[in-house]
């Protein structure tokens, strides 16, 4: 267990998976181990198997908000964003001040391409709440706020917000995030909202 947990914390997900699978097989009722396995599978792109484990956790403990949230994230990748939205809302009901969950739901509602999922004004309210909770110091949260501002047509605010996010990402030396934010910044300068390419069928 110690090795599997260490590999998971080091984000060595592919290496962690075989160790976690053995542990889950030997001790199927240890939910934290199964959650690490589900998240590791998700991170390495094995969404079908990740969904199987996270669905189990979500069903066996209806009060596990994070299991619902991560199961929802997997379902988005499996083109079942309608179900994901409901799971995000259930998770938020259980943990109404969770920055992770508020930001995740806001991002989905602000950026999804499907009209029945895309709710920019609700997304903006959630994103503003997340920004306050984070003290306007989290680049990912400000990225969501900028996406919601752009989705509602306020491109000037979106450019300003994402500029702050870029500065924070650069200060943290996060080059991957900086490049992602700069690409979206160009969208907003050109008055184009950012939309995710995941279709919804659930």
List the keywords:
202 residues, 11 helices, mainly alpha, globular
Structure, explained:
This protein has 202 residues and is an all-alpha fold. Helices cover 73% and strands 0% of the residues. The protein contains eleven helices and no strands. It has helices at residues 2-9, 13-26, 31-43, 47-60, 65-77, 81-94, 99-111, 120-133, 139-151, 155-171, 175-189. The longest helix has 17 residues, at 155-171. It is globular, with a radius of gyration of 18 Å. It starts with a helix and ends in a 13-residue tail after the last helix. The model has no long low-confidence stretch (mean pLDDT 93).
Largest sheet: none
User: How many whole angstroms does the radius of gyration measure?
Assistant: 18 Å
Which class best fits the helix and strand makeup?
mainly alpha
Mean pLDDT: 93
What is the count of β-strands?
A: 0
Low-confidence stretches: none
- Write down the secondary-structure element order: HHHHHHHHHHH
Helix content: over 70%
Strand content: under 5%
Number of alpha- plus pi-helical segments = 11
Helix and strand topology:
Layout: H1 2-9, H2 13-26, H3 31-43, H4 47-60, H5 65-77, H6 81-94, H7 99-111, H8 120-133, H9 139-151, H10 155-171, H11 175-189
Helix pairs in contact: 1-2, 2-3, 3-4, 4-5, 5-6, 6-7, 7-8, 7-9, 8-9, 9-10, 9-11, 10-11
């Amino acid at each position: 267990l110690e090795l599997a947990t260490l590999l998971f914390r080091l984000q060595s997900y592919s290496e962690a998976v075989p160790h976690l699978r053995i542990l889950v097989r030997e001790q199927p009722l240890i939910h934290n181990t199964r959650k690490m396995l589900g998240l590791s599978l998700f991170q390495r792109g094995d969404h079908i198997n990740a969904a199987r484990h996270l669905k189990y956790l979500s069903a066996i403990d209806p009060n596990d908000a994070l299991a619902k949230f991560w199961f929802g994230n997997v379902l988005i990748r499996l083109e079942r964003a309608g179900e994901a939205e409901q799971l995000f809302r259930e998770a938020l009901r259980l943990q109404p001040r969770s920055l992770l969950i508020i930001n995740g739901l806001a991002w989905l509602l602000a950026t999804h391409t499907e009209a029945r999922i895309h709710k920019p004004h609700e997304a903006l309210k959630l994103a503003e709440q997340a920004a306050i909770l984070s003290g306007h110091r989290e680049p990912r949260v400000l990225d969501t706020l900028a996406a919601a501002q752009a989705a509602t047509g306020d491109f000037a605010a979106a450019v300003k917000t994402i500029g702050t996010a870029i500065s924070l990402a650069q200060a943290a030396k996060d080059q991957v995030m900086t490049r992602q934010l700069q690409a979206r910044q160009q969208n907003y300068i050109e008055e184009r909202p950012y939309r995710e390419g995941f279709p919804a069928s659930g």
